[in-house]
Input
Amino acid sequence: MSTDSKFGEYGGQYVPEALMPAIEELTDAYERYVLDNEDGFMDEFRERMADFGGRPLPLQRADQLSQRYDTEVYLKREDLLHGGAHKLNNALGQVLLAKYMGKERIIAETGAGQHGTATAMAAAHLDMPCEIYMGETDIARQRPNVFRMRTNGAEVNPVTTGRGTLKEAISETMRDWARTVENTHYVIGSVVGPHPFPSMVRDFQALISEEAREQIQEKTSDLPDSVLACAGGGSNTMGMFHNFVEDETVDLYAVEAGGSSLSVDEEEGVAPNSASLSTGEEGVLHGARTKLLQDSDGQIMESHSVSAGLDYAGVGPELAHLVDEGRVEPVNVDDDTALEAFHRLSQDEGIIPALETAHAFGYLEEHHDGLGETVIVNVSGRGDKDLETVIEETGNRDLDNAPDMSIFREIGGGML
Amino acid sequence: MSLEAAFADEPAFVPYLAAGDPSYEASIEYVEALARGGADAIELGLPFSEPIAEGTTIQEAIVRALDAGMTPDRYLEFVREVDVDVPLVCMTYYNLIYQYGESDGPRSFVEAAAEAGIEGFVVPDLPAEEAGPLRAACDEFGLDLVFIVAPTTEGDRLETMKEQVSGYVYVQARLGTTGARDEVSDYTERSLARIADWDVPKAVGFGIKTGDHAERIVRAGADGIIVGSALVDIVAEGYENGDSTEVVADRLEAKARELKEGALAGAPVEQ
Output
C-alpha cells in the first residue's frame, strides 16, 4: 500500500480481504489514468464533462444577496450540471475509469437517490450495465429518483437489512463487490471509503474549484476571502475546496447539517444531526478511519437531517484531517435555518437550491459579517427533488419567509 | 488451551455464532450446545452495527443480537459466563476494538478480552497492513490474531499475513461473503496450495453446510473447518418459529456433531 493512502492519521484501507485485490487494482488504475493521464483518460473525462455535462459552469454574482449582506457573494453554479447536481463529476469519472479498466458492470449505493441517478445517467451514456443498491425506506421516500434510475436503464436493488437507509446500502454494495470484483467496478458516491476512493473522487470533483478559482480572479482580480460548501460525506465540499487549500488567505467553511439538535440520544443510538466534523469522534467505518457519529461503544449512530443528501454518520477522511489541521472550519446550521435559506435563495435570486446546498446559505445568513469582502458559495445542486419535502417541512414550522401555500387548502389539493 | 492446540490431534470443527442472538440467555445455551456437539474452538461474534463482510444470514443475526442489547461489556460478561472448555475467538470489526476503554487504540479491549477468557481475534475489516497495533496488543496479552486468506489473495499480501498470523489461518473457500451454499468450491484446494508452507493450522470456511462438505474439505487438505451460516440459520429458524431454547440447542448440538463427524471422516487414515 502506498503511503499517500492516508491523510494524517485518517483514511487507509479497512476492508475485507476479498476486496483488497480490487482496491489494489483500482489504486493502480487511479495512478495511471487519473494522475498520469495514461491513454488520454483525463482528456476524455474533461471532454465528456464539457459535451455531456455542460462544463465549464458559471460563477455568478448574486446581486440581491450581495446587497443584503454588503458582501460580494458569488455562486458556483453546480446546479446547472447535467442531472442537476455536482454528482455527475464523480459518477462519469468513475464509470469512464471502469471502462478503461476493462470492467463490464457498474454497481453503486445511493441514499436519497442523487448519486444513483448520476451513476445511472453516466452508465447509460457510456453503455455500461448498472445496478444501484438503495435502502427500502429510501426507495419509498424517493420515488421520483427511483423512476429516473429505472428510466435510464439501471436495476434498482432494494436493501431490506437493518434500517434500510444509506449505510446499509453501502454495506450491501461492498458485499456485491466482494463477490464480483473481477468484472465489476463499485462507483462510490462521495469522498469516503478505502483509498483510493477519497482521493480519486476529490480529483474528479476538483473541476469545481479549478474553474471557480480562475473565474473569481477574472471577475475580481483577486482570490475570495471565504469559500462555503455544505458537507455530508463531503464530495462537493472537497471539490469546492481542493484548489483553494494552498491559498492560505482563503478561509474554508464546511457547513454541516445541525439537524434538530447537536446532542445525541445514546440510548436509542440516534444523533438528530449529521455533524460528524463538528461533533464526531475518530473511528473506522466503511473502509476508512475518519470522524464518525458513534456511541461510546463504537456502534454507528443513525444520523438525521431534513436534507437526505447530508444524512450520513461519517465524512471524508481528508476533510477530517483538514479540520484537525485547522485549515477547514467545520460549522453547522439547523433544519429551520436551512429551510429559511432555501426560500430566501429561491425568492431573492431565482435559484431553487437543493436542501443540502441551502445549509451553506443558512450559514451565510447567520455569519456573513465574519466572512470578509468576497465569498464564494457552492450551489451544489438544484432543489426540484426537494420540493415535496420543503412544502411538508415548511407547513410544520413557523418560518419567517415561507411562501403562502394555502391555495392547496382552498382548492382541496390535499398536499398538506 | 491454545488455539493452535485445538487443531493438534484431529481435524478441528470451529463453529461461529453471534453472541446474544437472539437473546443473551439463549445464546449462552447455544454456544454450550456447540461445545457438547464437538466444537474444538468457537468463533464468538461481537455484533457491530455495520458488518460489511457478512452475508445476509449473519447480518440478520447481528441485528437480532444488537436489538436484544448486546454491547462490548455484555459480550465480555458473556465470555466469562459461558461454560465451555474450548478456546473462544472474538470475531468483530475494528471500530469496536478501537473505541473500547481508555487506550488510544486496541490495547484496552485486548486486555479486557484476555482477562475474560478470549484466546484470539478475527477482524474481517482489518487487513494485515493496518494490523500492527492489534498484533502488538495481542502479543502483549498472549492472544492469537487470525487472518482471512481470500481466493484472490496473492503475492506480497500473502507474505504480509504470513508474518503476522498466529493461532490458525482462516481460508475463505470461495469469493463472496458468508452464506451456506450447496456446492463446495474447488477454490479450496487451490487456496490451500498457496499457503502450504505456512506453519499455522489451515481452517477452511465460507459455504460449509453439511457433514459431507466438511469431509470433502478435510480430504482436500484442511486442518479444520469453520461453519457459520448453517448454524445461524438454525438459530434464525428457531427464533422465527418461536421454538424453545432447548429444542434449538438440541438442533445445534446435532448439527455440530454431523459436521465434526464429517470432518473426522475426511481425515487421512493413520498408518
Remarks:
- The CA atoms of residues 72 and 337 of chain A lie 21 Å apart.
- Chain A has two domains: 16-52+87-201, 59-83+207-395.
